[in-house]
Amino acid sequence: MNYSLAFALAFGTVLAGQAQTVKSRPAAELLAMQGNGNPYSPAPAAAQTYRLAGRVFDPEGNPLPGATVLMKGTNRVVSTDAAGNFTMELPARTANTLVAGYGGCEDLILALGPNQLLLNVHLRATLADGLERPLRVGDFAPDFDLPTTTGTTFKLSEHRGHPVVLYFYPKDGSSGCTKEACSFRDQYEDFSALGAEVIGISSDSERSHRQFTAKYDLPFPLLSDNGGQLRRKYAVPRAALGLLPGRVTYVLDGEGRVRYVFNSLNEANEHVLNAKTILQSL
After folding, report:
1. Which is the catalytic residue, given 123, 177, 201, 235?
2. What is the Cα–Cα distance from 82 to 267, expressed in whole angstroms?
3. Tens-place pLDDT, residues 148-204
Protein backbone atom coordinates (compact mmCIF):
# COMPACT_ATOMS: atom_id res chain seq x y z
CA MET A 1 0.00 0.00 0.00
CA ASN A 2 1.12 3.53 -0.63
CA TYR A 3 2.50 4.78 2.72
CA SER A 4 1.25 8.33 2.08
CA LEU A 5 -2.29 7.09 1.52
CA ALA A 6 -2.17 4.90 4.65
CA PHE A 7 -0.99 7.85 6.78
CA ALA A 8 -3.77 10.07 5.47
CA LEU A 9 -6.41 7.46 6.26
CA ALA A 10 -5.10 6.95 9.79
CA PHE A 11 -4.95 10.69 10.48
CA GLY A 12 -8.51 11.13 9.24
CA THR A 13 -9.72 8.35 11.57
CA VAL A 14 -8.16 10.09 14.59
CA LEU A 15 -9.77 13.42 13.72
CA ALA A 16 -13.16 11.76 13.27
CA GLY A 17 -12.88 10.15 16.71
CA GLN A 18 -12.02 13.45 18.33
CA ALA A 19 -14.95 15.13 16.61
CA GLN A 20 -17.30 12.54 18.16
CA THR A 21 -16.00 13.22 21.70
CA VAL A 22 -16.12 17.06 21.59
CA LYS A 23 -19.59 18.43 22.41
CA SER A 24 -20.58 21.72 20.82
CA ARG A 25 -21.46 24.52 23.24
CA PRO A 26 -24.99 25.90 23.01
CA ALA A 27 -25.25 29.42 21.61
CA ALA A 28 -26.64 30.72 24.91
CA GLU A 29 -23.57 29.41 26.77
CA LEU A 30 -21.23 31.10 24.32
CA LEU A 31 -23.08 34.38 24.73
CA ALA A 32 -22.84 34.06 28.49
CA MET A 33 -19.08 33.54 28.22
CA GLN A 34 -18.81 36.71 26.15
CA GLY A 35 -20.64 38.69 28.80
CA ASN A 36 -18.56 37.34 31.71
CA GLY A 37 -14.94 38.23 31.57
CA ASN A 38 -14.50 37.99 27.85
CA PRO A 39 -11.95 40.72 27.06
CA TYR A 40 -13.48 41.18 23.64
CA SER A 41 -17.03 41.83 24.84
CA PRO A 42 -18.23 45.49 24.89
CA ALA A 43 -18.35 47.32 28.23
CA PRO A 44 -21.83 47.80 29.72
CA ALA A 45 -23.44 51.13 28.80
CA ALA A 46 -23.10 53.86 31.43
CA ALA A 47 -26.29 55.18 33.05
CA GLN A 48 -27.79 58.09 31.16
CA THR A 49 -29.64 59.60 34.13
CA TYR A 50 -29.40 59.78 37.90
CA ARG A 51 -31.87 60.68 40.65
CA LEU A 52 -31.72 63.98 42.50
CA ALA A 53 -33.54 64.13 45.86
CA GLY A 54 -34.35 67.42 47.54
CA ARG A 55 -36.61 69.47 49.76
CA VAL A 56 -38.13 72.94 49.37
CA PHE A 57 -38.66 75.34 52.29
CA ASP A 58 -40.75 78.50 52.50
CA PRO A 59 -39.33 81.91 53.53
CA GLU A 60 -39.97 81.03 57.20
CA GLY A 61 -38.01 77.79 56.92
CA ASN A 62 -41.02 75.43 56.88
CA PRO A 63 -41.27 72.50 54.43
CA LEU A 64 -43.30 73.69 51.44
CA PRO A 65 -45.77 71.34 49.68
CA GLY A 66 -46.88 72.10 46.14
CA ALA A 67 -43.73 73.97 45.11
CA THR A 68 -42.60 73.49 41.53
CA VAL A 69 -39.12 72.34 40.49
CA LEU A 70 -38.18 72.22 36.82
CA MET A 71 -35.00 71.71 34.82
CA LYS A 72 -34.24 74.64 32.58
CA GLY A 73 -34.46 73.94 28.88
CA THR A 74 -36.44 70.69 29.21
CA ASN A 75 -39.92 69.45 30.07
CA ARG A 76 -38.76 67.83 33.33
CA VAL A 77 -40.94 69.29 36.10
CA VAL A 78 -42.11 67.96 39.47
CA SER A 79 -43.99 69.27 42.51
CA THR A 80 -43.08 68.78 46.15
CA ASP A 81 -45.15 66.40 48.28
CA ALA A 82 -46.88 67.16 51.59
CA ALA A 83 -43.51 67.21 53.39
CA GLY A 84 -41.83 69.45 50.81
CA ASN A 85 -39.83 66.60 49.25
CA PHE A 86 -39.19 65.93 45.57
CA THR A 87 -37.17 63.59 43.36
CA MET A 88 -36.15 64.18 39.75
CA GLU A 89 -34.35 62.21 37.06
CA LEU A 90 -31.53 64.32 35.55
CA PRO A 91 -28.93 63.69 32.82
CA ALA A 92 -25.86 61.98 34.29
CA ARG A 93 -22.39 63.50 34.34
CA THR A 94 -23.57 66.96 33.25
CA ALA A 95 -24.14 70.23 35.05
CA ASN A 96 -27.84 71.15 35.32
CA THR A 97 -29.79 74.32 36.05
CA LEU A 98 -32.99 74.02 38.07
CA VAL A 99 -35.71 76.58 38.71
CA ALA A 100 -37.84 76.36 41.86
CA GLY A 101 -40.99 78.42 42.42
CA TYR A 102 -44.16 78.83 44.45
CA GLY A 103 -47.03 81.31 44.54
CA GLY A 104 -45.85 84.51 46.23
CA CYS A 105 -42.17 83.52 46.09
CA GLU A 106 -39.39 84.52 43.75
CA ASP A 107 -38.30 81.94 41.21
CA LEU A 108 -34.97 80.60 42.42
CA ILE A 109 -32.35 79.53 39.84
CA LEU A 110 -30.03 76.78 41.06
CA ALA A 111 -26.82 75.58 39.41
CA LEU A 112 -26.10 71.90 40.09
CA GLY A 113 -22.85 70.03 39.74
CA PRO A 114 -22.70 66.76 37.77
CA ASN A 115 -24.52 63.93 39.57
CA GLN A 116 -25.36 66.08 42.62
CA LEU A 117 -27.56 63.81 44.75
CA LEU A 118 -29.10 66.08 47.41
CA LEU A 119 -30.50 69.61 47.33
CA ASN A 120 -32.23 71.88 49.86
CA VAL A 121 -34.05 74.90 48.43
CA HIS A 122 -34.98 77.96 50.49
CA LEU A 123 -37.39 80.31 48.70
CA ARG A 124 -37.74 84.04 49.26
CA ALA A 125 -41.02 85.95 49.43
CA THR A 126 -42.18 88.42 46.80
CA LEU A 127 -43.55 91.50 48.57
CA ALA A 128 -46.48 93.07 46.75
CA ASP A 129 -49.38 95.39 47.60
CA GLY A 130 -48.79 95.32 51.34
CA LEU A 131 -48.46 91.54 51.64
CA GLU A 132 -45.69 90.63 54.05
CA ARG A 133 -45.50 87.07 52.76
CA PRO A 134 -47.13 84.82 50.15
CA LEU A 135 -50.68 83.57 50.71
CA ARG A 136 -50.63 80.30 52.62
CA VAL A 137 -53.10 77.67 53.66
CA GLY A 138 -55.29 79.18 56.40
CA ASP A 139 -55.00 82.80 55.19
CA PHE A 140 -58.06 84.79 54.16
CA ALA A 141 -57.93 85.42 50.43
CA PRO A 142 -57.84 89.16 49.60
CA ASP A 143 -61.17 90.50 48.38
CA PHE A 144 -61.48 91.95 44.88
CA ASP A 145 -63.95 92.83 42.15
CA LEU A 146 -63.26 92.43 38.44
CA PRO A 147 -65.34 92.49 35.22
CA THR A 148 -66.49 89.17 33.77
CA THR A 149 -67.12 87.93 30.23
CA THR A 150 -70.87 88.53 30.70
CA GLY A 151 -70.47 92.22 31.43
CA THR A 152 -71.12 91.85 35.16
CA THR A 153 -68.71 92.32 38.05
CA PHE A 154 -67.43 89.46 40.18
CA LYS A 155 -66.80 90.37 43.83
CA LEU A 156 -65.15 87.57 45.81
CA SER A 157 -66.69 88.42 49.20
CA GLU A 158 -70.19 87.99 47.73
CA HIS A 159 -69.48 84.32 47.10
CA ARG A 160 -68.89 83.18 50.66
CA GLY A 161 -70.65 80.06 51.83
CA HIS A 162 -69.22 77.72 49.21
CA PRO A 163 -65.74 76.88 47.86
CA VAL A 164 -64.16 78.90 45.08
CA VAL A 165 -61.35 77.83 42.75
CA LEU A 166 -59.33 80.81 41.50
CA TYR A 167 -56.92 79.87 38.76
CA PHE A 168 -54.49 82.45 37.37
CA TYR A 169 -53.20 81.63 33.90
CA PRO A 170 -50.84 83.37 31.46
CA LYS A 171 -52.81 83.99 28.24
CA ASP A 172 -55.97 83.17 26.32
CA GLY A 173 -55.40 80.76 23.45
CA SER A 174 -51.93 79.51 24.38
CA SER A 175 -51.55 75.73 24.32
CA GLY A 176 -51.18 75.22 28.08
CA CYS A 177 -53.96 77.68 28.95
CA THR A 178 -56.32 76.11 26.42
CA LYS A 179 -55.58 72.65 27.83
CA GLU A 180 -56.21 73.89 31.38
CA ALA A 181 -59.46 75.72 30.50
CA CYS A 182 -60.84 72.73 28.57
CA SER A 183 -59.93 70.40 31.44
CA PHE A 184 -61.86 72.61 33.87
CA ARG A 185 -64.71 72.67 31.34
CA ASP A 186 -64.79 68.89 30.92
CA GLN A 187 -64.86 68.36 34.69
CA TYR A 188 -67.03 71.36 35.52
CA GLU A 189 -69.97 69.19 36.57
CA ASP A 190 -67.71 67.50 39.13
CA PHE A 191 -66.80 70.89 40.61
CA SER A 192 -70.45 71.95 40.65
CA ALA A 193 -71.40 68.72 42.42
CA LEU A 194 -68.83 69.64 45.08
CA GLY A 195 -70.49 73.05 45.47
CA ALA A 196 -67.51 74.94 44.05
CA GLU A 197 -67.25 77.85 41.62
CA VAL A 198 -64.43 77.93 39.09
CA ILE A 199 -63.01 81.33 38.13
CA GLY A 200 -60.26 81.91 35.54
CA ILE A 201 -58.13 85.06 35.76
CA SER A 202 -55.61 86.58 33.35
CA SER A 203 -54.57 90.02 32.14
CA ASP A 204 -56.28 89.56 28.76
CA SER A 205 -59.01 91.99 27.74
CA GLU A 206 -62.71 91.30 28.20
CA ARG A 207 -63.02 90.94 24.42
CA SER A 208 -60.27 88.31 24.37
CA HIS A 209 -62.01 86.46 27.20
CA ARG A 210 -65.34 86.47 25.32
CA GLN A 211 -63.70 85.05 22.20
CA PHE A 212 -61.83 82.40 24.23
CA THR A 213 -65.03 81.48 26.09
CA ALA A 214 -67.10 81.19 22.89
CA LYS A 215 -64.46 79.19 21.01
CA TYR A 216 -64.15 76.52 23.69
CA ASP A 217 -67.65 76.77 25.21
CA LEU A 218 -66.38 77.49 28.71
CA PRO A 219 -69.14 77.27 31.36
CA PHE A 220 -67.35 79.39 34.00
CA PRO A 221 -66.46 83.10 34.02
CA LEU A 222 -63.09 84.56 33.05
CA LEU A 223 -62.01 87.75 34.81
CA SER A 224 -59.94 90.47 33.19
CA ASP A 225 -57.09 91.52 35.49
CA ASN A 226 -56.03 94.47 33.36
CA GLY A 227 -52.52 95.54 34.34
CA GLY A 228 -52.03 92.52 36.59
CA GLN A 229 -53.04 94.29 39.82
CA LEU A 230 -54.86 91.27 41.26
CA ARG A 231 -51.96 89.03 40.26
CA ARG A 232 -49.66 91.25 42.32
CA LYS A 233 -52.18 91.38 45.17
CA TYR A 234 -52.14 87.58 45.34
CA ALA A 235 -48.35 87.58 44.88
CA VAL A 236 -48.56 85.28 41.86
CA PRO A 237 -44.97 85.00 40.60
CA ARG A 238 -43.85 85.21 37.02
CA ALA A 239 -42.64 81.96 35.50
CA ALA A 240 -40.12 80.73 32.93
CA LEU A 241 -37.36 82.92 34.38
CA GLY A 242 -39.68 85.92 34.54
CA LEU A 243 -40.67 85.77 30.88
CA LEU A 244 -44.32 84.75 31.36
CA PRO A 245 -47.11 85.36 33.88
CA GLY A 246 -47.29 82.40 36.23
CA ARG A 247 -49.92 79.68 36.46
CA VAL A 248 -51.17 79.40 40.06
CA THR A 249 -54.38 77.92 41.45
CA TYR A 250 -55.92 78.77 44.83
CA VAL A 251 -58.69 76.69 46.41
CA LEU A 252 -60.77 78.70 48.90
CA ASP A 253 -63.23 77.22 51.38
CA GLY A 254 -66.67 78.62 52.20
CA GLU A 255 -65.17 81.11 54.66
CA GLY A 256 -62.82 82.50 52.04
CA ARG A 257 -59.71 80.92 53.52
CA VAL A 258 -56.99 79.49 51.33
CA ARG A 259 -56.99 75.71 51.55
CA TYR A 260 -54.58 74.90 48.71
CA VAL A 261 -51.99 76.62 46.50
CA PHE A 262 -50.48 75.04 43.40
CA ASN A 263 -47.87 76.72 41.18
CA SER A 264 -46.79 75.10 37.90
CA LEU A 265 -46.49 76.63 34.45
CA ASN A 266 -46.15 73.32 32.58
CA GLU A 267 -48.45 70.91 34.44
CA ALA A 268 -51.72 72.54 33.35
CA ASN A 269 -53.93 69.48 33.92
CA GLU A 270 -52.54 68.96 37.41
CA HIS A 271 -54.15 72.25 38.50
CA VAL A 272 -57.56 70.79 37.73
CA LEU A 273 -56.99 67.34 39.22
CA ASN A 274 -55.36 68.67 42.38
CA ALA A 275 -58.07 71.27 42.95
CA LYS A 276 -60.79 68.62 42.68
CA THR A 277 -58.94 66.31 45.08
CA ILE A 278 -58.67 69.10 47.65
CA LEU A 279 -62.36 69.98 47.33
CA GLN A 280 -63.31 66.35 47.91
CA SER A 281 -61.47 66.49 51.23
CA LEU A 282 -63.15 69.68 52.51
Report:
1. 177
2. 18
3. 887 889 999 999 999 999 999 999 999 889 999 999 999 999 999 999 999 999 999
